[in-house]
Recover the amino acids of this structure.
């Protein structure tokens, strides 16, 4: 049984880490599935729009890029 202990522990750790990575990716995808850009009409022109205040969205974009980078660099990600 001792000869399999290390292999079983490795499999268990890999499974846990893969699950954590999947949750991280799921959180990123969940946010971006419902995210939207704020746009506002430009002055009094009804056919022209400009971006509104999207600071929170830009912050979340930076966070998402960091998360995805971490997932891609993890040794536990599935190929």
């Amino acid at each position: 049984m001792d000869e399999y202990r290390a292999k079983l522990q490795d499999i268990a750790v890999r499974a846990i880490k893969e699950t954590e990575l999947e949750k991280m990716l799921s959180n990123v995808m969940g946010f971006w599935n419902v995210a939207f850009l704020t746009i506002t009409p430009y002055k009094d022109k009804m056919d022209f729009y400009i971006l509104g205040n999207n600071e929170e969205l830009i912050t979340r974009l930076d966070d998402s890029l960091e998360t995805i980078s971490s997932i891609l660099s993890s040794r536990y990600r599935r190929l």
